Amino acid sequence: MTDSFDVLVIGSGIAGLSFAYKTAQLGLKVGIITKKQQAESNTNYAQGGIAVVTSATDDFDLHVRDTLIAGDGLCDENVVRQIIEEGPKRVKELIDLGLEFSRINEESYSLGKEGGHSRRRILHVADMTGKAIETALLSAVEQHPLIDTFEHTFAIDLITLRKLKQLESGSAPADDRVLGIYVLDVLTGEVRTVSAGAVMLASGGAGHVYPFTSNPSIATGDGIAMAYRAGVPVENMEFIQFHPTTLYSSSEKRFLISEAVRGEGALLRDLSGDRFMDQYDERAELAPRDIVARAIDAEMKKSGSTHLWLDITEKDEAYLKGRFPSIFAACLAQGINISKDWIPVVPAAHYLCGGVATNLDAETSLPGLYACGEVACTGLHGANRLASNSLLEALVMANNGAVAVDEFLKKGNSGPEDLPAWVDGEVGDPDERVVITHNWEELRKAMWDYVGIVRSTKRLRRAQKRIENLSAEINEFYWDFKVEPRLLELRNLIQVSELIVECALQRKESRGLHYTLDYPDKADQLRNTIVPPRD
Length: 535
What we know:
- With 535 residues, this protein is an alpha/beta fold.
- Among the domains are: 244-348, Flavocytochrome C3, Chain A, domain 1, CATH 3.90.700.10; 433-531, Up-down Bundle (Methane Monooxygenase Hydroxylase, Chain G, domain 1).
- The chain contains 15 helices and 17 strands.
- Strands 1, 2, 5, 6, 7, 8 and 15 form a 7-stranded mixed beta sheet that branches.
- The longest helix has 24 residues, at 457-480.
- It is globular, with a radius of gyration of 22 Å.
């Protein structure tokens, strides 16, 4: 028996929840697929806020300019302008749902400033903005009668018309569209078939291709890998934003020290206590993230240190507890009182600026498949995301996608009543599961060592060779054994890593977040890197 929805949403962050709520408001039956609990997403960990023009001292043109500068020549200016100008309307809708941003008084918001911004324009809820947004959207979604949420459910692969016809007749039709997805119930091990007229990928990023990341464990590039396997091109995957300042620890999961801390006056210092950022950029600590991350990386390599320092001790304890309560508490739990002590910081993988290629309606090249949020590449971020533009993009693109999906379904594009059942591997509980763990660690180490903040062609080729070997081994596991979450995630991580390396090898220049020793200068010709689907 095939379950059926008008629309399926993969992911439960700000993009997925916003889209689900908007489409349900249009009268569509919506199913949300999330592999952990609803609230587990990159959105939930976002500290900084939403960059949006709300102040009389700011305007759209300034926000556009700041975004274009940060994007280092590769932003689509039309996309940038439309998203920024649409932002205040979409933020107003969040406020109408009950979200209360931090204020100075009844008339004025407390606006933050982060690297790359020429004005204070970051709406925030202390340093827990993402959590507050997630809470407001979850409340709206849970109360809507047309939305069903399936927690602990893993989206395995998209079902498309072309693949279905190939299985049935051995030949592929010229036209194609999404028909549904196969999902794994993580708790029972059962694989179900779900039909849908449209599917929205809102599965977030891929921070866990690296061993050190600010992302939650769910960020394994699932949506990007699924889309690519279904024949959808990806763009600009080489642009991985490493957040310059995460709390140094022995843990793989790095706690984020928000860029807003530097926006409020924090200084970066080397192990001797000296400032260094003014040697790298005139904006010093408020330079865009790519510049700050490379500067920290260079200073660490120069001294051989495992971390540097972030100093916000000029602010008193009462102020810091009020402005950054979660950061203050997290550091205090490590024995660091940030009003008195410097914070040990180190870069970590944070945000993917490329992804599944879409237009401004969140449409991909595959009819019925849409993407928004970090999984998508719209042209807003270019070669480097401007801080706090991601939540803005998610809100606007979710709205655009809801309108587009509604129009698509009104043309009669409903999901089929029945689809083929999933055929699993014949072997259960592989004795060689240790291979999955070993390959997981090997992949992420290769990505950190060879596809990190500073790259070279030789390093990229080394990574490519290792990833090819891992891909062959894991694909054999995938087809021979029963599917399980760890295997599915590793399969997707390997696919995404291949795409990152392929895009990085295409770019014969250093631009934005991609810096290579072999091509340290920018090329004269602007271009996006594209990996077309393979037959």
